[in-house]
Design brief:
single chain, about 350 residues, alpha+beta, Helix Hairpins, five-stranded antiparallel beta sheet, four-stranded antiparallel beta sheet, 9 strands, about 60% helix
Length: about 350
């Protein structure tokens, strides 16, 4: 892609002019990056609006459900009140006196069955009333959560819109500095078309496949890679080459990529579908049973993707590590990725509290 852009620059620009404007190439590259960021922000703004619309529909649906639930509760409240009043005034207690008026054993059994039926019906009504009230409370909580989500979406939209407008303005100012803006405009159009038709679908396939393979990482937890530091503490060591060989064995696409461990970062570089891909990220120990992967930066053919696209990828594709896939009793105490080696400090928690300090 980058080679194509340079060739297109040479074709569109006479050699003499191009030689005079060698120093303008960085500016054109900056404009391309700004245009790329602007269009990606516009795309994710559309996604936010769609999510906002879905959330509004959910809130409207919840409101209708809550109104129906309130009608049900109002109808049941009268019955529950009658039951409560009967017990408060002693009406139900007087039923017990009927047992002493039974003339024979058969009448006693019949009265006992009747009294038991009345008590069970009373408590069933009260229980159903409480269940419906609890259901309404859940709906109200859900509605409040959706409203909070809607507020967050609107705030996110406004912030991202402001960012997009600022970048667009900077880009337009830089375009005005060029003697011949038409050539860079052609490059901008081609860049966006290439990303939308080829780049984004390829990234989605790459991340989707990688997320699936990450769930198979526990296969690398073999005895020769695990060092015991005591009865309950162990260290799982996976070197960089082994990790790359493992990924390549799972899918052909990873044969063109290189996964590197250094400075507690995971760096992925390679080619896929004739485009350059680069990813830099790190793992966060969210809990002893969950290592969450955060993407710090993402590149397509040398162009950095905006944070909005990175967040979209993180939301859609889980690249985290779950030690319970190795064993339900395994927990991670610490993780490091240094000098081409991934090390996981593991702790074995046995049932009934064994292994705890």
């Amino acid at each position: 892609m980058r080679k194509f852009l340079l060739i297109l620059l040479l074709v569109l620009c006479p050699l003499s002019v191009f030689a005079q404007e060698e120093q303008a190439v960085p500016l054109e590259q900056l404009i391309l990056q700004q245009h790329f960021t602007q269009k990606e922000l516009e795309r994710t703004l559309t996604l936010i609006k769609e999510e906002e619309k879905r959330t509004q529909n959910d809130i409207a649906r919840l409101e209708m459900d809550m109104q129906r639930q309130k009608l049900i509760i109002d109808a049941m409240r009268r019955h529950a009140g009658e039951v409560a009043r009967a017990y408060y005034t002693g009406e139900r207690a007087t039923l017990l006196t009927l047992l002493f008026e039974a003339e024979n054993f058969n009448q006693l059994l019949i009265m006992m069955d009747m009294i038991q039926y009345l008590y069970e019906r009373d408590f069933t009504r009260l229980a159903m009333f409480q269940e419906e009230r609890a259901r309404l409370a859940i709906m109200q909580t859900d509605q409040q959560n959706r409203l909070a989500q809607l507020t967050q979406l609107r705030e996110k939209y406004e912030l991202q819109l402001a960012e997009m407008i600022a970048i667009q303005q900077q880009k337009e100012e830089n375009v005005q500095k060029l003697e011949d803006p038409t050539r860079v405009e052609a490059l901008m159009d081609h860049l966006i078309i290439d990303w939308q038709q080829r780049g984004l679908p390829a990234f989605q396939r790459f991340f989707g496949t990688l997320a699936g393979v990450m769930g198979q990482i526990p296969e690398l937890a073999t005895p020769e890679r695990i060092q015991s530091n005591g009865l309950f503490l162990h260290t799982l060591t996976i070197n960089q080459d082994e990790f790359n060989q493992f990924l390549s064995s799972k899918d052909e696409m990873f044969k063109q990529s290189q996964f590197s461990f250094d400075d507690n970062k995971l760096v992925v570089q390679g080619t896929y579908d004739h485009m350059e891909i680069k990813l830099i990220g790190a793992y966060e120990l969210v809990s002893p049973t969950h290592l969450q992967f955060h993407i710090e930066s993402l590149y397509f053919d040398g162009f950095e993707l905006p944070r909005s696209t990175v967040e979209e990828m993180e939301k859609l594709y889980d690249l985290g590590f779950y030690p319970e896939l190795i064993s339900p009793n395994i927990q991670v105490e610490q993780l490091s990725m240094m000098d081409e080696v991934l090390k996981l400090q593991l702790k074995l928690n046995l049932p009934f509290g064994w292994g705890k300090p």
